Amino acid sequence: MQATTQVHFPDHDLESAPKDALPALTDAERRFGMLPNLLRKMATAPALLKGYLALGELFEQTSFSPAEQQVVLLSVSRENRCDYCMGAHSVLADMAGVPKAVTDALREGKPLPDERLEALRRFTTAVVSARGWVDEAEVAAFQEAGYDAQQVLEVILGVGMKTLSNYTNHIAGTELDAAFQHRAWPASEADA
User: What is the extent of the structural domain holding 168?
Assistant: First the structure.
């Protein structure tokens, strides 16, 4: 029988983080007004931290509105059963003005009350669950809802960006920050 070693993923701060992670952490703390636990964990691998933040900035520059961006990110996080990202992005969705009925439906895995956002949720979920092998009918339905070829590919950017954080949280056991606790979401809700 082999002995198992449990890997520890520290919650770095500006004092303990690897030197290569410091500029990204400093910028993130300035931008967010705090240092989220996800970024503290990612700092162990500075390239992951920088890549995630860079993809996040690029995703913010897509043709999607802030509300649509949150629909994509919450849809990915729910499909990947990431309780950290569901809690954090529920708060960010609230801050972006996403109606509570939309965020609550996303959290519960129910159809969204807005048809266009529902098409975005369905397509994003299909991309994740099919690992990108989406049926042509899914792409057609997404485009019939008013989205274009650029936005099909922008969903892929959002899926890639959010998958980095979802998987990091799964493996590193990231604890939800106090600032997001009021919107905590247990992954068991995904099975309900």
Answer: 64-191
Digit-coded pLDDT (tens) for 85-112: 999 999 999 999 999 999 999 999 999 9
Looking at the structure of the chain, the number of domains it has is: 2
Asked if 123 and 96 sit in the same domain, the reply is: yes
Torsion of CA 167, 8, 29, 185, to 10 degrees: 50
Give the list of residues 6+ apart from residue 125 with CB closer than 8 angstroms, or none: 75, 78, 79
Average pLDDT of span 125-143? 97
Over the range 70-79, which residues count as b (16 or more CB within 10 Å of their CB) and which as e? bbbbbbbbbb
In this predicted structure, what is the pLDDT of residue 7? 79
Alpha helices in 5-79 (DSSP H): 22-32, 37-42, 46-60, 66-79
Domain check: are 33 and 71 in the same one? no
